[in-house]
Amino acid sequence: MGGQVEDAAWLKKKDDFGHINVAELDVVLKGVNLALKWGLQEIEVLTDSDTVCGWMKSLLTPEKRVGTKGASEMIVKWRLGILYELMDVCSLKLCVYFVPSEKNKADVLTSVKKGWLGVPQEEEDEAKLCCVGVPSVRELHQMYHMGVDRTLFVARKVDPAITREKVRQVVRQCDRCQSINPAPSVHESGKIRVDRIGRG
């Protein structure tokens, strides 16, 4: 393994709901960008994410397709595409190695005491002033009439203290969601303007 030129740790924000594998891939991109600023051409990537290691190896082996599915599929492919372009344009030579979590030195850097990450008291008090009440949850729900889970997810983006019970109460009181056929628009019946139906 090569030498270190700079140590860096990027802590995940408290309200970051992104998938951990996507976050790990973001860190790889940040690390490669940092290495480019140092003018390095040969970069060794050490990761404790088996998934990210697999994605990177697929990127380095053109015959192998990147295997990813799920909600973040396009995000992953986009970021891997950026990495591929960086390798091509900057003539980078990337090597990727899997390091188990117990041997990963970077995990020690990011495993800090929660007290060190604490929010100052003034900021905490200010945050309490913008709580989302039942009317605001109702407004969020009425935008798209999503179920309890998705409305709760959106509401917690605004205020993490929102409870599932509060969202459930709003969904139960929603006439559109409680009706049997909640489709917002109905197609008008009409006539087909052709003489006969079928191939001619």
UniProtKB/TrEMBL annotation:
SUPFAM superfamilies: Ribonuclease H-like. It comes from the Eukaryota. One of its GO terms (molecular function) is nucleic acid binding. This is RNase H type-1 domain-containing protein. It comes from Petrolisthes cinctipes. The lineage of its organism: Eukaryota, Metazoa, Ecdysozoa, Arthropoda, Crustacea.
